[in-house]
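Give me the fold.
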Amino acid sequence: MKITVKINLAKIIENLKKYDGKKIILMVKADAYGHGLKEVAKATESLVEGFGVATVDEGVTLRKSGIKSKILVAQWLQDEIEVATEYDLTLSVGDFVQLDLVKSVGRKAEIKVNTGMNRFGFDFGDTAELSRKVEGFSLSGIYSHLFSLEAVKGQKERFESVVNRLNLKGVETHLFSSSYAHLGDTVRLGIGAYQGAMTVTSTVVAVRGLHLGDNVGYGNKMPKSGGVAWVFGGYADGISREDPAPVLIGGKLREVVAVCMDTFAVYVGEDAVKVGDEVTLLGEDLDQNKLAKLTGTIPYVILTKWRGRTERIYQC
């Protein structure tokens, strides 16, 4: 018994084609936002310039699966540089220690500029020294990370100022992500590539009739009288215990009233629900954007939370 996660690779390809004419670095970190690192990369390699990952391990996995395109690694440690070299990974460089290290081994690198995210990257005040350090060093790119719609203009100006000061002719720049793809020719495409490509379903495993105030699960009380459908999957599988999302049973949006490790309880009232009925946890009529709003989170959390006893099925 498993939660089924269906991935529509054709939908991801369709989403990518909407950005025709732009150079795309497809972000496949975090197991391609829960869609499958190797599967997504293999299906899309012919449509993109390269891939973005968070770690060296993710990059190595892609190379071992046969991916030949550029792979940009966002985070790495000094003791991983030999592996990065062996597997021809492009390293993001955000401080002078990293820069000196990649220069010493002749590793491919892209400069990361901090324009306000305040996570990784060279600060504006580093520009003069950075200009001296990169002179004569072959860089494959320079980029930054947008973090807010309200801050785009200021970040763009800071980024362009650094690029101009460094005077890096012929070096690719990329700043824009899914939400800002219309602003530039090169885009690091993340969640925009995965819209509508995932469906998550489970199954009703028990049905009970309860009354207002009856206990349900571990110490929860029924908010009203009526039927309860117990569905396979619990907090061990990515179902939030503290703030569970509603689900669809029989095409109706249903409230979750209790979550255990292996199952969760859904209020179905007087509706006829039986063991074996399908339950939609994520799908066309209950997508990541709607679920995020209903639960006070962001779509990225919805897509990447499925774990434990899940089975991923690919549709082309």
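The first helix runs from residue 9 to 17.
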